[in-house]
């Protein structure tokens, strides 16, 4: 039985435990539930926790260890001379072939006896482990259900026990989130240091050429690679600036209108329609940019060249079929809801007494918005803009389809550029050697994005602390 089926079975047993525990609480209380220290529902939750928590923890540990058990059985079935005849990398590749063979059993054709025996041992160990996991986990769940039900009595402090268990679960969840963040950062740092052991830090940070193609073998003819990240940073910033120039004014003005000027009927209609933009897949925006916006700017550039630039100045605009302008404008349209919706919610959260006080002092509605509501809502607005900037920096699909893959160092929005995220995807597509500078460059670019985001957060906190208006 698969782990997902066992998980569902445990969940059903937890539901049963809740019902049985609640019924048991009513039974021991008789006709007077007021005799119970805790409400009957808490007794049901307590039984469900006794049923589910130990069994689910065991299930998680078992699922982690099961592949190791199967691998150990597979390796034990391989003769020692076969293992000794292969290097570490060759042996890992050999084990991967056996796992693929195990997934295809029974097979027809000429298969080496060693491979077949190891694959059968792998499947046998996995099957036995799965059966044992099913039996042990379900038995533990039933035992926990029975034990939890036996604890129910009039004086049982079920509410205290449940709240203590929930507190522990929340602490564990927050700890997992923190450890996950630390793990991501450490993995980025570790792989980035490996990259800088192959490529000088100064070349990466200050280099003006990006061409990560490298030779995989010493005897292979190929480029040594150029890993200057400046063109990628410039392309990312160019598209982000264009996107924010579209999203921030439109988003903030929309939020101000819907929060302070629009009537309830228009607001109830306009806000959901505006938020629909956030639910459209980015690939749809990419198609829109590649098939509509980019050709429009290309045609507009050709038209202006014919009637204006060439006759008067003898030059051409040179609008590329893939341009930062097209990608940035469409990206800005995509992130308008991030600015407008969050800013609208923040401005609506400003107390009405501040508006009334401003009007009482003779301020107009525009002055109230500019001098009272906007300063009071500034922390939330900065957070909304920062979220939009992060969304723009991390966008990939629109850039691939509308701005291209060319790492050009330019500030001309009419030319094709690329971004850091696009290059990360490009570097990690297909089978890669994770010891090569080309692949490790993706981790260095990821670490650079992490640093940029951290700097943006510090900058946003500085703005908030400097300009925020405090009210009692």
Helix fraction? over 70%
* Radius of gyration computed on alpha carbons: 31 Å
Q: Widest sheet: strand order?
A: 1-2
With helices defined by DSSP (H or I, 4 residues minimum), what is the helix count? 17
User: Runs with pLDDT <50, length 5+?
Assistant: none
CATH architecture heading of the largest domain: Orthogonal Bundle
Identify the CATH class of the largest domain: Mainly Alpha
Query: What would you call the shape?
Result: flat
Q: Would you give the CATH topology of the largest domain?
A: MetI-like fold
Question: Which series of helices and strands comes N to C?
Answer: HHHHHHHEEHHHHHHHHHH
Given the helix and strand composition, which structural class is it?
mainly alpha
Work out the number of β strands: 2
Features:
single chain; 2 strands; flat; 17 helices; MetI-like fold; two-stranded antiparallel sheet; 472 residues; mainly alpha
What can you tell me about this protein's structure?
With 472 residues, the chain is mostly helical. The protein has two domains: 3-156, no CATH class; 226-467, MetI-like (MetI-like fold, Orthogonal Bundle), CATH 1.10.3720. 76% of the residues lie in helices and 1% in strands. It has 17 helices and two strands. It has a two-stranded antiparallel ribbon. The longest helix has 41 residues, at 158-198. The relative contact order is 0.09. The model has no long low-confidence stretch (mean pLDDT 84).
How would you summarize what this structure contains?
This protein has about 475 residues and is mainly α. It is built from 17 helices and 2 strands. The longest helix has about 40 residues, at about 160-200.
């Amino acid at each position: 039985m698969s782990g997902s089926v066992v998980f569902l079975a445990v969940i059903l047993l937890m539901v049963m435990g809740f019902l049985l525990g609640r019924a048991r609480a009513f039974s021991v209380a008789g006709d007077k539930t007021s005799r119970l220290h805790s409400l009957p529902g808490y007794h049901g939750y307590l039984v469900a926790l006794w049923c589910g928590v130990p069994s689910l923890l065991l299930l998680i540990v078992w699922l982690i260890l099961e592949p190791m058990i199967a691998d150990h059985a597979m390796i034990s079935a391989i003769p020692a001379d076969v293992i000794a005849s292969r290097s570490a990398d060759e042996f890992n590749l050999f084990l991967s072939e056996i796992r693929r063979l195990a997934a295809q059993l029974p097979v027809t054709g000429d298969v080496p006896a060693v491979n077949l025996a190891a694959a059968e041992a792998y499947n046998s160990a996995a099957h036995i482990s799965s059966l044992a996991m099913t039996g042990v986990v379900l038995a533990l769940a039933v035992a926990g259900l029975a034990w939890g039900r036996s604890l129910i009595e009039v004086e049982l402090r079920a509410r205290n026990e449940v709240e203590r268990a929930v507190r522990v679960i929340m602490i564990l969840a927050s700890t997992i989130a923190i450890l996950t963040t630390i793990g991501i950062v450490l993995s980025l740092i570790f792989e980035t240091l490996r990259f800088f052991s192959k490529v000088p830090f100064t070349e990466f940070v200050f280099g003006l050429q990006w061409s990560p193609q490298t030779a995989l073998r010493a005897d292979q003819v190929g480029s040594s690679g150029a890993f200057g990240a400046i063109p990628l940073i410039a392309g990312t910033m160019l598209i982000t600036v264009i996107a924010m120039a579209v999203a921030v004014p439109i988003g903030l003005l929309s939020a101000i209108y819907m929060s302070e000027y629009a009537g309830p009927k228009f607001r109830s209609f306009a806000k959901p329609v505006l938020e629909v933009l956030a639910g459209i897949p980015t690939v749809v925006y990419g198609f829109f940019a590649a098939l509509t916006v980019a050709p429009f700017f290309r045609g507009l550039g050709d038209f202006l060249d014919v009637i204006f630039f060439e006759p008067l100045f003898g030059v051409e605009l040179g609008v590329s079929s893939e341009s930062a302008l097209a990608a940035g404008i469409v990206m800005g349209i995509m992130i308008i809801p991030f600015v407008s919706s969050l800013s609208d919610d923040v401005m609506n959260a400003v107390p009405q007494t501040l508006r009334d006080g401003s009007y009482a002092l003779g301020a107009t509605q525009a002055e109230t918005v500019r001098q009272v509501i906007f300063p009071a809502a500034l922390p939330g607005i900065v957070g909304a803009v920062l979220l939009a900037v992060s969304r723009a920096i991390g966008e990939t699909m629109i850039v691939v389809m509308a701005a291209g893959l060319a790492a050009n160092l330019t500030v001309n929005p009419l030319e094709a550029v690329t971004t850091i995220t696009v290059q990360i995807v490009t570097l990690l597509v297909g089978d890669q050697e994770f010891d090569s500078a080309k692949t490790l460059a993706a981790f260095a670019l990821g670490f650079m994005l992490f640093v940029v985001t951290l700097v943006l957060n510090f900058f946003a906190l500085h703005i908030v602390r400097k300009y925020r208006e405090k009210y009692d």
